[in-house]
Each structure stands twice: as C-alpha cells, then as structure tokens.
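Data availability (excerpt). The following record was deposited with the supplementary files.
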Amino acid sequence: MDKVKTEGGDAATKVDKDFGIDAKKRGRFNFGKQQASRTPAATKFEGKCNELRGNVYDCSDMKQADLFAKTTKEIAGFVGRTYKYGGDIRLVVENLEMVSITTPKDPPKDSTRTEERIWEKEVDEFVKRSTYLKENIKTLYSLVWGQCTDIMQQKVEATDIFETMSMEGNGLTLLKVIKDVNYNFQSQKYLPHSLYESKRRFYMCVQGRNMTTQIYLEHFQNMLDVIDHSGGTIAGDSGIENMILNEKTTSKENMNDQQLSELKAEVLERFTAVAFLVGADRVRYGRLVENMENDFLQGRNNYPETVSAAYHLLTKWKQDPRHGLREVGAVGDGVSFHNVRG
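Predicted structure:
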C-alpha cells in the first residue's frame, strides 16, 4: 500500500482505492453512523412534580418496595409543607389511613358568651380542616399519579377499583393500590414460593459499607413489611417464647388473650432486634456484636430487645476506626500465598 497522508480527503480516497471501497457506499455508511449518533437516548422518568424530581413509583425491579417507602416519605413531607392544613394530609400519607379530626363538644347550657364564642371558632376550624382534607385527598391523587411510571399506571389501571377511584380522585386509595402492587410483585407466583423468596431477602439484608444506619433501618423494615403484607411471619419460634416465659417466671396457661398477643409481639421484637444488629456493617459494628457475645458467655445479657433499641445502640456506638481496620485485616478468606524462589 502506498503511503498516505494522515489528514485530509486524499487519505480517505487512497484507503478506499486500496481496499476496494466504493466512495458512494462509504458516504452512505458514514451518513448512517451520523444519524445513529444523533438519536437521543431515552430519558429516565423522574416524575411530573419538579420538587419531587427522581422520587417515583415503579414496579419493574426487586427494589420497588424500598422505592415505594422512599417516595411516599418524600411526598408526605412535600404535602405537609405546601398544602393548606398540611399536617393532616401528611399523616394520611405517612400512615396510609384517614386521620380523625375531633368534633368540638357542645358548650354547657350555662356557658358564658366567651365560651360560646370559643366554641363557634372551634367549629369553624373543624369545618375548615375537614373540607381542606377532602380537597387535599383529591389533589394528592393527581400528585401521586404524576409520579407513577407508565408500567405502574398500567398495573393500577388493571385493578377492579381503578374507575371508581379515579372518578372520586381518592389519593389515599391510590397509594394503597400502589403499595399493594409494589409489595406483591410476586403475586403471580405460588404463595409459599413468594414468601420463601421474601424471607430469603430478609435474611440476606445487611448494611452496606457506605449505607447509613438510618437507610439500613428503613430497608430492614421494608423487608419485614413485604413479608407481613403477604401474610407471612418471621418469628414464631417456641424456643424464644419459652425463654421469655422463663424470664417472666410464668406460663402461657396463666396468660389472658391480651398477654398472649403481647408475648407473640415480644418474640418477634427479640428476634428482629438481633437480626438487625447482626446485619449491621461488621467494620463499624463488628466489635460491638463480639462484645455482646462475650458478655453473654459471662452471664451478662446486653442484647437489645427491640429494633428501636438496637438502632439507638448502633447510632450511639463509638469505635476507633483503627480497630475496624485491624478487624478487616484479620478476616481470612481461605486463600494463602507462598513465595517460591527459583
């Protein structure tokens, strides 16, 4: 091949001749490449509300339960700040249930003019709060719907109650339907299979190296909520139940229905508190868990009994970072190297 220039049209012409490339075809080929490069990339859906940009409802991956909780939390804060009587609608979004606005009691017959006037003001306030709450529920519907991806909207539209819900503009019902879609993303599977996978994800739930304890707690609670929403349970172990009964020096036969219900709840709390603690980042909290194990061997039980107590313990725990580094270096991976001099 003859030597060609590195720049300019002569170089391209020379290469075409040497390799037998038709100039017209090359032009069409280059034009096609230019056209392809101009094709805009698909933009990620981030919602219709600019203030909630990036907080959306989706149902296309296994993180959708976490996404639901995060988006709902952001929406609750947004409506609380911007809506009239926002405190009421914020509670509706956070708890996914209507708030109860207390009706003012009628003043006594011998009330003073001042007491009657105060009562009238309370009634006026009650009517305003009730009216704004109804309107805010309808406004919430449009807000939430605008944060739904296309696939989520399709899922919601396929439900039996969509038409009625849409006509009423019931934002609370819409949030409940979205939660049901997000938390039952395996609803088409055989229920035992679905619950098994939900529990498996729970047992694999650990705090990432760069994950804050607050985010870890939210993720942990979401895993529990998914299981509970599907009708499953994590802790029903008779061993933990017997341990608690021995601590209380009583038996189930001596308990009434309320006490038995409280016992069941305590079993769950004890188990999930340990699960949350053990799943914490080992670099930051490994020494804490190790100390608890050693203390228990010496007859001192310092394990937290609730998830709340475990979270409080992690957030208050202080450890020299150098200790964490030594712990990481001490962890063996089963691989050793031997230098051979040849």
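Summary of structural features: Confidence is low (pLDDT under 50) at residues 1-8, 325-342.
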